[in-house]
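## retry 2 of 3
previous attempt timed out at serialization; input unchanged, resubmitting
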Amino acid sequence: MKQGGLCAYLALLLLAGVSASYADMVVTKGSGHRPPPRRVSPSRKPPTAPTTYKSILALAAARKDLSIANAVLKKTAGPDFGPNAPPATVFLPNDEAFKLLLKALGVTQAQLLALPTKVLTEVIVYHAVPGMPLAAKDLKPKQVVETALPGYNLTITKDSAGVMILAAQSKAKVVTADLKAGMTIVHIVDTVLVPFDVLNPPVPPGAFDTPGGALTELGLEYLVGAIEAAGLGGVLNRTDVIGTLFAPTNDAIIRTQTALANNSLGVNLMYPQVVQMILGDHVHLGEKLMAADVAMRSTIPVGWAPADYATPDAHILTVTFNPAGPSVTLSGFPGNSAKVIKADVLVGTRQELVVHVVDGVLITTQTARALGLIQANGTTAPVPTPAPTPAPSPSSSGTGTVPVSTVPNLGAAIATTPDLSQLLSKALAAGLGNQVATANSPLTMFAPNNAAWAAFESMLNAKDPRLTAVANQIIALIISDHVHVGDSYNANALTNGQIIPIGMDPTKYMDANATTVRVTVNATGVFLAHQVSGAKVLRTILAGPTVVNIIDSVLLSRASAAALGLIEMPSASPTPTPTPVPTPSPVAGDTILGVISADISLAGIGQLIALTGLAEPLSDPDIEYTLFAPVNDAVTTFAAELQKIQTYNPANPQVLQLLYQILATHVYMAGVLRSSDLTDGQVIRTGVANTPATNVTVTINSTGVFLTATNTVKVIAADIAAGKSIVHKLDGVLVSPEVARLIVELSAGGGASPAPSPSGTPSSANYSSVLAALSSNTDLIGFNGLLGITGALQQLSSPNLVATFFAPTNEAIEQAGDLLASLGTNPVFTPQIQQIVNELLGSHIHLGEALTYADLNMDGKKIPVGLNPAAYTAADNTVLTVIANSTGVYLQSTNIVMVSTTTLTAGKSIIHVIDGVIVSPKLLAMLPPPGSSPAPTPASTPGEEPAQSPSPSPSAGPASGTFSDVRQALTSTPDLFGFNGLLTGNAVVYAQTNNPNLVATIFAPSNAALENSEAITSLAAGAPDTTQILLRYNELLGSHIHIGEALTYADLNMDGKKIPVGLNPATYTAADNTVLTVIANSTGVYLQSGNIVMVSTTTITAGKSIIHIIDDVIVSTKLLSLLSGPSATPSPSPSPEPADPTYDDLPSALRGQGFNHLADLYDAAVNSAVGPILQSLLSAPITLFAPSDTSIDEYLSSQSTTFEAFLADSKTNPINIAGLVLPHIHIGHAYTLDEFTVGQVITTSTTGLEMFGAQLTVQEHDAKVVFSTSVGPVTVIGGIIRAGTGIIIPIDKVLKPDV
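## retry succeeded, writing output
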């Protein structure tokens, strides 16, 4: 949103009484918001600030508590705040003062800084008293001083309570006095002094000579653009115009453009004469009507020809004056109106033109008829009043376009398509031939092709040859599973998640148990999921009022599957009902595949069996296997990440190997293991032919039976007979070391090394992937959060992705806040949010090329953008046009953004930073009509407290709502996009956010809170290595998450309540775990750690979790400690210490110091498939916490094996080595013993292999160094050993992964 548009938007907020609320707040100094201080002990004192600075700018830049003032000073123009500034006294507001102003106005820092430069300058100079450098001691008990803002004075009082500054609309207290800045004395104050309504500042008479200057200063750039587009640009520079202009805001113009586009009338705006006619409805020429004059009129003629004003065809506006407001409203054709929101702006050398800003585009009845907004019968078309939800448009979620052909009718579609001959014969056999031939009303048929029918019949024959005959008997029922009556759905118009009722009888579509299909749209195509089957759409035939979507599989409802004996339908009565159709053998339960086919809760593992080709061996009734079968919820959660891998690796055979290995991990082929055969501590070796065996450990305790590979799952149903085999149901998917290895490799694009940076790129930084680049740049956290909504994080983490990203800064996204907010303001449009966001984001991504700045610097260059490169040549695909001139490089769509010369190299991709959000024409057409009535606020959940409206709340957050999981909630709430982006930095945590069964409480800071947080921007500051950054990040993120409980607002409203937080609930009872303390009083609920944040009364239900909006980022005391960094202050030794043993490399050091087991494991790993990855990791500085051979032998003995056996097994399964060795390696820094301090935390393993990580907390550092770990205290034995760039620290125990 342009600067002027923001002004207009903020002006609307002002009318709601924001200025008054600010005045109330500053009088009470915000005491109604923040609770009284309680037990807050800062972990560190801020450094004492110097009292002398070269200038005011230097002072503001040097002090952390003046960061916002510093930003505002940089936005001013005119006054000199540098070293040569004249003598003055300046009362400079601190950050808390500005935050109070932001809350009162209801705006963000970015929005404040986007106010006109003139307004910001006047606010700042209102704090300055020129020519009088007054120290505190020079101030009188009461004095009035003239400020640098002409016509505005301040009153200063001084007494025992301190120095107060009294302004027209606020008052402030001096909190820090007598700071010398050049020839100026600065006093820091706790409140911003407000000279006037900053959101609607007064316009001085005679301020504008021309209409163009006035409209630009008023922030009405869209109106200026419309005047130029209409060929009327000359009027903008005239100084002699006489008349009245009703000037619509930017937002009003955008709303009208969108409404017209949604009603297929947007094309009219391409014609200058149409735009001229609409603009004419805002102009009354020849007479200057001030607001008082307008209020006295009942009607006003408008148009470019004053001679027509008195004719019967005159364009007329109706005036409504409300003295209670007071307010003036102008109306055009029925349903069209606009209110005057800023009046009496005089323009011209003789001030004979007056401008009134209005909040809507005016269209008279005559213009409405010409545009077709009023129909021939006199009825009014629904424009520009908000229209109902537009019909689904083609998804832009990354799919290829489904091919489309056209025939006259449904009969022709089926009869003339050879691949549908089987469908035709079956329709005729079912007696449906006449219906097919005569169909002349809207209908959709999902038509299986011949190959689909052949595969279907082959499946039935494999189960039992008699099933084919049964299928022929019920063919009418099966065909009805493919028909929707009443709508014609082109596959290209289907949207992800769309539900379509199915069946020949549309009167049953609203039944609770109606048969439906769910649509999935992703990068590989359009898919349909029926109740027990699924299919992909191959192509579409438009057949008169009907549509035929050809699919590659036969769809089956539960009724059809039950009639075929494939599943059992639940009975509604207590006694069994005979099956009307005979069910042939084999019956469900004869085989493993039979059990899975008959159990809806195992459909997910059934699909995995089909994909891997193991259906045949598992349908053998004579095998004696044990299958540990994850239920659907578990498979669905796991499959979400697998789908991303498969999407990015469409032709990689390792994907199938991964699926095969996942299934193999759950199969025990050595016999039948009933629950009575399982014992605590038992190790089972699972696997099938050609896969590495997996050791699965059994744990039996009072809470149940558990299985552990690299993770732990629970047996939730046991001893299900499957012929001679047994099936046990699990609540999770077992992940073997081999599965973990494949996931890591495929997630990293197969382990390929990133390509060298493109030549000629003025790159400011290089990163391994797009995700790494965005996650490492806090100014792009908003764009990162938006990308997370697309579900494309797996692709973004690949170093092999080739693309060009145009990434708006946080400020740019913040300025587009109203556009983004429109996505979530009305639940009616929720199904379209993904589609709209994909178009929004797709406009910023060009796939297939990494374009350098030099590549972009070509005037007129066309760049197709979008999430689907296959659509780049389509006529309606979004294309950006480059404007390159002496001032820089710009990208043009419906708006123009500037490309920064600074670029980020991200693997094989390039990221260009831009200063605005790109808005494509397609996006404007897709946006929901503004002003739609929001749905009623959901009623409070039983037990919840009602919203406490009198209490202060954080800046505008989303209304309470309900979503299926945390990720859906965050990605559907624009004000939480930033926190969603923050979550993406931890892949493990982010993967859990789309689990509807996750039970947690999330304290989510709003976008504004993240934007203003110093903790966010300080994560990388002074960090010695990436591991320290990761520690800080995980502590910051974990401080906002409480796992294991979904706490309602009522649960939080308990003063003194303690809430442990963190990413690992197993550490919640640890002494050093972060704990939030609740402060609950009459003003609201707050959370206290290293700072205090306020909890909004609005909550979001997300599956089994609850999200609370908070007004600031939680900064724990542990994070403050991490941000301060480890101190290294070794005491000088009175005598020289013996030199540390030093070796050229790690293997030499291990052998030389007797760590032979570790050396053997190193050799085995280097010579294995993961050797290159290992050597790459170990090329960085490392710290190896090295257990002795004896310690390793003791540990392996406790695991019922020997080192020799372990080593032999590891040569074929090197991931075992990672499980033993990685908990001992810290990558990124080589620590000496002197660098450790008590309380310091060292994390081992590496990114992507966090499952093997361990945390070592320094517990003692006196006569010896002792770490607290998950295996208990671990003591350093002896001194360090230097090994190339690494250091070895001998320890007395083997470390184990914390997870």
